[in-house]
Amino acid sequence: MYLIKTLMGDITKVTDVQAIVNAANNSLLGGGGVDGAIHRAAGPELLAECRTLHGCETGEAKITKAYNLPCDYVIHTVGPIWNGGRNREEELLANCYFNSMKLAMDNGIRSIAFPSISTGVYSFPVELAAKIAVHTVNRFLQGTPDSFDLVEWVLFDTHTESVYEAEVDQLYKMI
Ligand code: APR
Q1: Where are the domains positioned within the chain?
Q2: What pTM does this model have?
Q3: What is the pLDDT, as a whole number, of residue 77?
Q4: Domain of life of the organism in this record (predicted)?
């Protein structure tokens, strides 16, 4: 049986997962927010490896080593920029979570931490993003029994953490 949970903190410091997910941009060459924090913590070798990946489409995911981070892998995914919901943003955000989970499973990873993808610079509404995130991950886990032990969201502020926690609590009320 897997565990889905949320916590407040800095995703570059979590030590209980094999992979952390980066909310990157299409270039995969770093940026601000969680992307900047991950690159700063991992060190320059992360950028060097990212350069070999030649970017990433929105909704897709690519994997690298984690270098100086306290985990083994970084899965880079590119969330949609919110534009009122008229440009497939919901579907693309769901793709980020599905493709990150699939890439992790294909690499034998059983524990993974996500940030709140797209709800910072990319302005995706947190409540809608949390619903999409938790439901997509849960559907993936139900479709691939015994593929993961732990999936957690590491949130950076109390409002975002309370929104994701409410979604996860809802899930456990349904199971
Ligand atoms: N740990 C966990 N979460 C973090 C951290 C951190 N160290 N730093 C920021 N966050 C949170 C933000 O508070 C927000 O809730 O991650 C969430 C996603 O915000 P962004 O990092 O701005 O990501 P996103 O909205 O997906 O925008 C991606 O921003 O940094 C650039 O290169 C990145 O162009 C890309 C865009």
Answers
A1: 1-171
A2: 0.98
A3: 99
A4: Bacteria
Query: Which segments in the chain show pLDDT lower than 50?
Result: none
Contact 22, 57 (CB under 8 A): no
Looking at residue 66, its amino acid is A
Question: What are the backbone dihedrals phi and psi of residue 99, each rounded to the nearest 5 degrees, phi first?
Answer: -70, -30
Residues listed for the chain: 175
Q: How far is the CA of 112 from the centre of ligand 1 (A)?
A: 17
Task: Judge if the beta carbon of residue 121 lies within 6 A of ligand 1.
Answer: yes
Name the residue of 10, 13, 14, 34 to mutate for ligand 1: max ligand atoms within 8 A of Cβ. Answer: 34
The DSSP call for residue 80 is P
Strands 19-24 and 111-114: parallel
The CATH architecture annotation of domain 1-171 reads 3-Layer(aba) Sandwich (3.40)
